[in-house]
Automatic annotation (TrEMBL):
Claim: Transcription is one of the keywords in the record: yes
Ranges for domain HTH gntR-type: 13-81
Top-level taxonomic group: Bacteria
PROSITE patterns xrefs: HTH_GNTR (PS50949)
UniProt KW keywords: DNA-binding, Transcription, Transcription regulation
GO molecular function annotations of the record: DNA binding; DNA-binding transcription factor activity
Organism: Vibrio algicola
Name by which UniProt lists this protein: FCD domain-containing protein
Length: 239
C-alpha cells in the first residue's frame, strides 16, 4: 500500500479537505479495503506532502463521516461499508466517477421514489403561504425556461433542482430537509444524464405543482410517484 497517494502540496483547496477526499476515494473505490489499516501518519504525510496537522484534520473529517476509526496501538482502520454515511452531501460528491453511472442513478432514483412522493403530499398540506408563493414563482420560471426560443440546459437544471428542493423545505418536517441537500448534491449530474430536454417533463411538474397548490395530498403523492418512474428518466431497465 506504499505510495498509494500523490502529493497535493500544490493544491489550492484546503489541504485537509483535499487529503480527506483522496483517502475517501481510495476507500470508496475499494483500493483501501474495509477493515484494513491505512498507512501510518508519517508515511501519509510524506505521500501527500502535508503536515501532521493537515493529515490529522483529514482523518478527523473522515471519522465524522464514519469511513475511518482510530484505535490505540492498532492504527486507523477503514470501517465496514454498512457504517458509511452515504447521506452526507460531501461524500456523494467524492463518489463521482467511482461508480457506474447507471447503477448510481438507479440508486438515487430509488431513494427519491421512497421519500419524494410523501414529501409532495406533506407539502400539499403544510406549505406556508410564503412557500406556496415561492413555489408558484419557481414553476413560472420553469415554464419560461422550457418555452424559451433557445433552450439552456443549465438554466433548466438549476430551476428544476430549485423546484424539488422547495418541496422538501415545505413539508413542515425537519427530517426531510437533509434530503433536499442530497438532492442538490446529486441532481445536476442526474438530470443531465437522464433527460435530453426539460420541456419533456414540464407537464409532470405542472401536475405536482397544481396538486400541492390545491392542497390535494393524495394527488400530489400519485403524480410525484408517476414522475419518478425509471422509464421517464432515460435510464436503462432495472435488473
Amino acid at each position: 500500500m506504499s505510495n498509494e497517494f500523490n502529493s497535493i502540496s500544490g493544491s489550492k483547496r484546503s489541504l485537509h479537505v483535499q487529503v480527506a477526499r483522496e483517502i475517501a476515494r481510495g476507500i470508496l473505490s475499494g483500493k483501501l479495503p474495509q477493515g484494513s489499516i491505512i498507512p501510518g501518519e508519517m508515511a501519509l504525510c510524506e505521500q501527500f506532502g502535508v503536515s501532521r496537522t493537515a493529515l490529522r484534520e483529514a482523518v478527523k473529517l473522515l471519522t465524522s463521516k464514519c469511513l475511518l476509526e482510530s484505535r490505540p496501538k492498532i492504527g486507523t482502520r477503514v470501517k465496514d461499508r454498512a457504517s458509511w454515511n452515504f447521506l452526507d452531501p460531501q461524500l456523494i460528491e467524492w463518489m463521482d466517477g467511482l461508480v457506474d453511472n447507471d447503477t448510481f442513478f438507479h440508486q438515487f432514483l430509488g431513494l427519491r421514489r421512497a421519500i419524494e412522493p410523501e414529501a409532495c403530499a406533506l407539502a400539499a398540506i403544510h406549505a406556508t403561504a410564503e412557500q406556496r408563493i415561492e413555489l408558484s414563482e419557481t414553476f413560472q420560471k420553469m415554464c419560461d425556461v422550457s418555452q424559451a426560443e433557445v433552450f439552456i440546459q443549465d438554466a433548466w437544471t438549476d430551476i428544476d433542482m430549485r423546484f424539488h428542493n422547495l418541496i422538501f423545505n415545505s413539508t413542515g418536517n425537519d427530517f426531510y430537509l437533509p434530503f433536499g441537500n442530497i438532492l442538490c448534491s446529486m441532481y445536476k449530474n442526474f438530470i443531465v444524464h437522464s433527460s435530453e430536454h426539460g420541456a419533456l417533463c414540464l407537464q409532470e411538474h405542472r401536475d405536482i405543482y397544481e396538486a400541492i397548490m390545491a392542497g390535494n395530498a393524495d394527488k400530489a403523492r400519485a403524480v410525484s410517484a408517476s414522475h419518478l418512474q425509471a422509464s421517464k428518466h432515460r435510464l436503462p431497465d432495472e435488473v
